[in-house]
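Aim 2 progress update. The chain analyzed this quarter is reproduced below.
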Amino acid sequence: MITFIRRFIGIVLIGGIVFVTYTNATINHNPKSFIFDDVDKIGEHKVGLVLGTSEKTIRGGANPFFVNRIEAATKLYQAGKIKKILVSGDNAEVSYNEPKAMQIALLDKGIPKEDIVLDYAGFRTLDSVIRARDVFGQNDLIIISQEFHIKRAVYIARTLGIDAQGFVADGVSMKFNVRTQVREILARTQAWMDVHILNRQPKFLGEKEEII
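Predicted structure tokens:
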């Protein structure tokens, strides 16, 4: 009996490792033609979707992920590659508001307020992507984040029939990157399951607010 249990546990562990490896490899091998790090090479789109993250680190300093995403969105806007910026993030608590923080940062960069649209229900990447289509009416857009995140976001979008391209914001030093990369491995497996098995939907949809 003990031998059987050990074998069963071993099979489950091996199966889990194989599944995680497969899902990560699938998402990681997005065609490079969909992902860009050069402003001059990416096409023009009406909307750029900036995926949310905290403005500050746990220690209270500026979050480089946040700073670099804002910089990337600003570059695209100033180059005429996007006309509107949709900032999508978590606002589950009164004291924590990713979209508002991104709006303020973009205003400081000189982006007109009327060209910044706030999505307060982007609790996960999946939510942000689906809401961009189903709430804000965008089936063709540029997604803005760091490279590791962009691959997952673009995979979700294109699997769901959204003609998405990704623009890579600058990365960060390894002291930030290691923990994030490990977490991303599990996030990619979850994303694959969400779109291929679970058909998961956003926590909130609500009324349409089409960006025109």
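The radius of gyration is 18 Å. The mean pLDDT is 93. These observations will guide the mutagenesis experiments scheduled for the next reporting period.
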